[in-house]
Amino acid sequence: KASEKAVLGTSQFAGRADVHITLLHVLEDVVHYDKIPSTYVYNLKKTEAEKLLDRMAAIAKAIGIKHIDKKIAVGPIVEEINREARDCASIVLGWRKGNIFSRL
């Protein structure tokens, strides 16, 4: 649901402009933790991430976005988003839990 809202939100500022979007899904790599948090659940594997990105790309296409890239990154979420966002004019985030904005 959060990803769908992010993709739909993109249409609000993109309008009918000829924009290029990159759909990014970060699979958090627990190696960077000193201790794996008890709340950590690694339940979204690469194939599930690919299916999610395919669904989000279909939504983006349906709302008129023509240039869509899909990307899966593995690592700390904030670092991977920041790395991908370096060359972006703007970012729209879908986030299931908490608030990541203060960490970016």
Describe the structure.
- With 104 residues, this protein is α+β, with helices and mostly antiparallel strands.
- The chain has three helices and two strands, in the order αβαβα.
- The chain has helices at residues 2-14, 46-62, 77-85; strands at residues 20-27, 67-74.
- The protein has a two-stranded parallel sheet.
- α1 (2-14) runs parallel beside α2.
- The radius of gyration is 14 Å and the shape is globular.
- The protein starts with a helix and ends in a 19-residue tail after the last helix.
- The model has no long low-confidence stretch (mean pLDDT 77).
- In quaternary terms, these chains amount to single chain
Helix content: 25-40%
Question: How large is the radius of gyration?
Answer: 14 Å
Strand order in space, largest sheet:
1-2
Average of the residue pLDDT scores: 77
Portion in beta strands: 15-25%
Q: Count the helices. How many?
A: 3
What's this, in brief?
The protein is an alpha+beta fold and 104 residues long.
